[in-house]
Every structure is written in C-alpha cells, then in structure tokens.
Amino acid sequence: MPEAIEYERIGDIAVLAANNPPVNALGVDVRRGLLAGIERAEAEGARAVLIYGKGRTYFAGADIREFGKPPQDPWLPELCARIEASPLLVVSSIHGTALGGGLEVALATHYRVALPSARVGLPEVHLGILPGAGGTQRLPRVAGTEAALDMITTGRHVRADEALVLGVIDEVADGDPHEVGLNYTRELLESGASRRPVSEMPAPEQVNFDAVYDEVLRKGRGQISPATAVRAVQAACESESFDAGMKRERELFMDLMASDQRKGLIHAFFAERAVGKLPELQGVEPRMLHQIGVIGGGTMGAGIATAALLSGLPVVLLEMSPEAAHAAKGRIEANLSGAVKRGKLSQARYAEIMGSDLKLATGYGALSNVDLVIEAVFEDMDIKKQVFAKLDEICKPGAVLASNTSYLDINEIAAATKRPEDVIGLHFFSPAHVMKLLEVVVADKTAPNVVATGFALGHRLKKVTVRAGVCDGFIGNRILSTYRTCADHMILDGASPFQIDKALTDFGFAMGPFAVADLAGLDIGWAVRKRKRAEGLDPRARDSSYADKLCEAGHFGQKTGKGYYVYEAGKRGGVPNPEVLPLIEAERAEQGISPREFSDEEIVRRYMAAMVNEAAKVVGEGIARRPLDVDVTLLYGYGFPRYRGGPLKWADLQGLPGLLDDIRKWAAEDAYFWQPAPLLEQLVAEGRTFDDLNKEAS
User: Fold this and answer.
1) Do β-strands 89-94 and 111-114 pair in parallel, antiparallel, or remain unpaired?
2) How many CB atoms lie under 10 A from the CB of residue 664?
3) Are 52 and 93 in contact (CB under 8 A)?
4) Per-residue pLDDT tens digits for 41-96
5) What stretch(es) of the chain map to CATH 3.40.50.720?
6) Confidence (pLDDT) at 2
7) Tag placement on the chain: N or C end, fewer CB within 10 Å?
8) Where does the record place the 3-hydroxyacyl-CoA dehydrogenase NAD binding domain (predicted)?
9) Which residues of 435-471 are buried (b: 16+ CB within 10 A; e: fewer)?
C-alpha cells in the first residue's frame, strides 16, 4: 500500500506528494506523513519543501470518515503551526481544490502557486462549524478582513484568478502541478526569497463587526456558524497576538462542535450521500436513456424538459395544440436564457439545444421511440389514465412510463396499461430545473431496473433522489398535508396565518406555510380539498372553508396578485391581505369557536410535532424506507432549515419522549388528528431514536 505522503528529494527541494485518493483528504495518515516529511527535509538539509497532491486535487478537505470520532495526533491546527514554523521555505502547488483544512494547510505554507482551474475556499460553515486550524486568523492577513469575512461566512469556492487578486495565492501558472510547483520553488530560491509566515504578518484591519454579525445572522435565518465565524475573524483583528487569536478561534470552534446545529448539518451531509444507496438496487443496471419525452409544457413540464436538456438529454415535448407547443417552447427558452445569463450554459450550446435537442410535437406518435416519457398533465386521475393508455399503445417495448403526479395513486395509473412493470412515479418539484429534489415513487409492480432508471435519471439531472412508496402524497406531500392541517387548526383556534408564517420563518424555514401556498397556487390545495371531500371526510376530522372562499373569489396567490398576501408588481414578497382575517373570524363564529392566543413557541411545537408524528407513520408503513429519507425530502423540497437536520433529526435532538407526551396531551382535545404514530410509541418505549433506525438500515 503506498504512503499517504510520498517523499522525494530533487536537488535542494524536498517534495511531499499527497497520495490519498480520491481527493487527498486530510486523514490521520496524511497528517502524519506531512509532519514526518517536514521533519525529514529539515534533518536532511533541504532548502525548501514543496507540497502538492497527486491525482485530481490538492487537499480537498477533512476526511469525512473521521467526523464524530476522537481526533488523532497530529491535530490539524498543530500540524499547520509546525509547517509554518519550519526554517525551510515551504511552498504549496495547488490544483483541483484546496478547501477547508486543505486551504488552511496552504495558508500555513510560506508561498502558494495554483493552476488556473484551481479553486479555494473555507466551506466549514456548511457543516455547522468554522475553520479551526487557523483559517479565520490567516486568511484575513493575506486577503483583508472584508474578503475573508465574505469567503468564510458564505463558504463559497473562489477561482484561482480571484484568489490571486485577493492575495490568497501568489502566482497562477498552467501545467502539471508537480512541475509548476518545482519551477516556482526554484525561482523563489534563486531570487533569495525569505520565509514568509502568515502568522507574522500584521493584524488585519478592523470593521464594524457587530453590524456584520447581525447581518450574517439575518441572512442565515438563524444559522449560528457563519455569525460565530465573524467573531473568530474579529479575534484576528483585535487580539494582542496571533496565538491569542488562535486560542479564541479554538474556543469558538469547540462551542460550535457541541451545538445541535452542527449535529443537524452533519446529519444532513451524510443523509444526502446515503439517500440514493438502496440495497434493492445493488447490481441492478438501469435501462438506457438516449432520449426522453415530456407530456405537457406548462410550468412543470417546461421545467422538467429544461432540466433534461441541460443534462444533455434530447427531449420530445408533446402538447395538445400548436399554440400550446409554441408557449411551452417560450417557457423553455426563458429558462435556458436564464442559464446563459448565469454562466451555466454557453450561447453556442443554447443554440444547439433549441435547434436540434428540443423537438415539439402535437401527436402521440412522436413519442414512439423515446426511452422514457414523463407526463406532467393536469392532476386528475381520469386524465392521467387516458394518457397512460395512449402511451401503452404508442411507446416502444421497454420504455419507462413515468407520472409526475404529486398525490395520485401510481398503482391505479399503472393499471391503465398492459405493462405496469414499466410504470413509475417521478415527482419533480417546481420549478423543476431549479429544485433539487426528485421523489421516485415505486408502485407494486414496478420493475427493479425501472427504479434504477429513475435514480439514474435523477443523478444525471443532478437531483437529490429519494425512494418513496405509494400513498396519498407519497413522502413529502403526505407530511405537508398533515402539518398544514395542523396550521389550519391553529387558525381556527385563534392564531393568524401571518403569525404562523413569522413563527416558522423565525424557526428557520425559508417561507411559512401560507406564503408557500400563495407561491404554489391556492387552487392546488383547493383541488385537493374538493377531492378529499368528494371521497368522504371522516366525520371526526375538522374542516374549514375560509380558504375556499379566497379561491372562489379568484384569489390564487402570487399568480393572481392576491391570496393570503397581496403582491405588487416589482416588489418582493407580499403584505397581509386584509380580506383574510374577516373570513377566518366568520368561520370561527359559524363553528362556535372562541379564539385564544398562541405563543410563537406553541405554534412551532405543534407544527413540528404534527410533522414528526406523520413522518413516523410514513416510515413505520414503509412509504419511506429510513428516517433519513424523510429528512432529505423535507430539506430539499420543503424549505426545512438545513441546520436542523430534517424533522426526524430535530425530533431526536429535542427528545422523543417529550414530543410523544405533547402529542398525547393534545389528543385529549382532538383524538382524531393527534393519533400517536405506532413507530414513535415503539421508539420511546425502547429508549431508541430515529437515528438508530438509520444506522440499522445502513
């Protein structure tokens, strides 16, 4: 087995080459190898040390396999201090990425050269921590306080050309990182360059740190790691010595390590990587995908087509009339033009897509040769069944037939065909070319290689893909329906939509449920309510009609300019609609309800308990295979605050016994809605957590 750090002597230069594929992560073997290499170079009388990475990158960051385990010597802060203290000239040659601890090692060296394609950054805030090996102390000294604050609090990756301007690197040169590094190190030696420890540079300039802290906390919607990092950079500017600043960085780092937010973000990090790894798909090859079809060119269909085209998949888009097809083309053009403006798509590629990759059609015959077709037509079972019966006639054998339904029964849709094994749900989230989540809904007869094809498509489209079983709403919308019902109950009992939205955005949600309803369109919820009433509501279920009255008046939210909020052209967000509260008050009077006050804390507790309880039912019934599948669904499709890890991670951190006690207490006032999930009762009885179930499934 090769050494994690390979040592080579070339003249006066000791070369330390990282060889820890795939990304040269800074695991304990790499850290020990770097320390040993520095010591050997000094003992052998070298004049300089060059550090670079073999393979595709310099050190891309920490070794995720060490997360949550006791650190082993040498710790990265001590290693960086030792590298910097070397009497030799120490140089980094950077290619690929130098992220997190990788950039901290580079900043501990005396000079840095990078290939033009290299990127650097300190993304630790995304894991709920801050750079803990001197990043908050060294980066401001080379890049200045404002640039360092921007890089550290956003965690963004900075390209080599920008890093050169900022002073993070000293030179950009093209070529092989080994040769580039050697040439640069030789130039330094020949010019008589001296050591240049960043720790000995003057303290960086001060800024208004209190104002920066408040703004970063506001932008992060309560996430504490970026704001805490501001205080660490402040220590770089205000401490009487570099060592004192390092001490403060370490204190703040340890505070974050102990926080629930760090636990939530680490859980989200690993859950996202685990969600697509399903035992049932091991060794199952997906079907080939050369071309796909999309039926329906509205907002959703056009978004799905855009996502596929951006991934390099040719698309046949079917609409019912030339006029509708022309409108769909316009939506796709607008989506792709946005990608061009953001630098995600070249003008030449845009022209190629619109010229040859997108084909518009008004007859089903155009779909006869596609490998997979996704229908995105109106959410009506009869219409869906008609579409699938037609696809059964037209599509070639082996083509995957997918529905983008949000709620409807995939088994019933599949029964409209003679090949139910080819039918699957692919539930995209709008706008489909932007939203990261894809639910792959597996029906009773769906073939394993069709499931594998759904996941392969999700991967190609750069989606976070979750497996779901068949029920009303699958994972996400089923849980949404329940916690949204909880919010409706609190409104009947005395809360307002606007208080609920504010309490939940203060909790960290991107938007509150009523603002979300306005964004999605109130007609969607109206259609679901009418369908459920037509199917027959349980007489014990509480119902209300005030939201229906908004819809009856033509108020569907943002698309009509009025819903729970009133929206003005050119203005972000809306203001509360004054027509809403009188409708609610009339509803309460009609139902004989005396309103009471709700605290923000009670709103959040009830809303979250309803979410957790329904999620536990979803896992207990096997609709979601693991709790982490629920967490990833809510994180990527429903604006759940990432730093809380997802609803079931949040529940674990809150304590399941207390949540179950609250649910049982509220069941005394509404036994139908607050029925404790059997899985939640079982976990509490056994003293276990949702995360225990994740570990058992891994």
Assistant:
1) parallel
2) 13
3) yes
4) 999 999 999 999 999 999 999 887 787 778 889 999 999 999 999 999 999 999 99
5) 284-468
6) 72
7) N
8) 291-468
9) bbbbbbbbbeebbbbbbbbbbbbbeebebbbbbbbbb
pLDDT at 512 over 60: yes
HSE toward the beta carbon, residue 509, CA cutoff 13 A: 19
Residue carrying the six token digits 């801050």: 130
Q: Is 104 a catalytic residue?
A: yes
> What topology is assigned to 476-697 in CATH?
N-(1-d-carboxylethyl)-l-norvaline Dehydrogenase; domain 2 (1.10.1040)
User: pLDDT tens-digit profile of 664-688?
Assistant: 999 999 999 999 999 999 999 999 9
User: Which fold would CATH assign to domain 5-261?
Assistant: 2-enoyl-CoA Hydratase; Chain A, domain 1 (3.90.226)
Alpha carbon 546 to its chain's center:
35
DSSP state of 285: P
Per the annotation, the verdict on 124 as an active-site residue is yes
Torsion, Cα of 689, 692, 694, 697 (10° steps): -140
- Cβ neighbors of 282 (< 8 A, separation 6 or more) are none
The pTM is what?
0.92
Rounded to whole angstroms, the Cα distance separating 650 from 612 reads 9
Instruction: Dig out the tokens for 96 from the structure.
Output: 């690929």
Please pick, among 84, 124, 439, 614, the residue that the annotation labels catalytic.
Answer: 124
Q: Helix or strand or coil: residue 245?
A: helix
**How far apart, in whole angstroms, are the C-alpha atoms of residue 148 and residue 136?**
8
Q: Which of 104, 249, 319, 439 is catalytic?
A: 104
Q: For residues 165 and 143, give the distance between their C-alpha atoms in angstroms, rounded to a whole number.
A: 9
**Best CA proximity match to 187, nearest among 202, 171, 199, 200:** 171
Lookup result for tokens 């200045």 = 144
> How many Å apart are CA 56 and CA 68, to the nearest integer?
27
| Structure token digits, residue 624 | 């979601």
Strand, coil or helix: 120: strand
DSSP code, position 205: P
Task: Report, as an integer, the average pLDDT of 149-178.
Answer: 97
